[in-house]
């Protein structure tokens, strides 16, 4: 199972959904749905988020297979 840690990482970086939306170009609603596990992000979306937050893609999720 893969758990996306976007909300935790945003909190650590002190960044709002709106700010992240502007940085990565992914809509606020989509980001919110990713955080609330309503949708699974694509690899492209994970890459855009990681670049915007200046972190590795691997830092965005927890997995038994990591």
TrEMBL record:
The keyword Ribosomal protein does not apply. This is HTH cro/C1-type domain-containing protein. CDD domains: HTH_XRE. Coiled coil: none annotated. InterPro entries: Cro/C1-type_HTH, Lambda_DNA-bd_dom_sf, TransReg_Diox_bact_type. It holds the Pfam family HTH_3. Keywords: DNA-binding. GO terms for molecular function: DNA binding; DNA-binding transcription factor activity. One of its GO terms (cellular component) is cytosol.
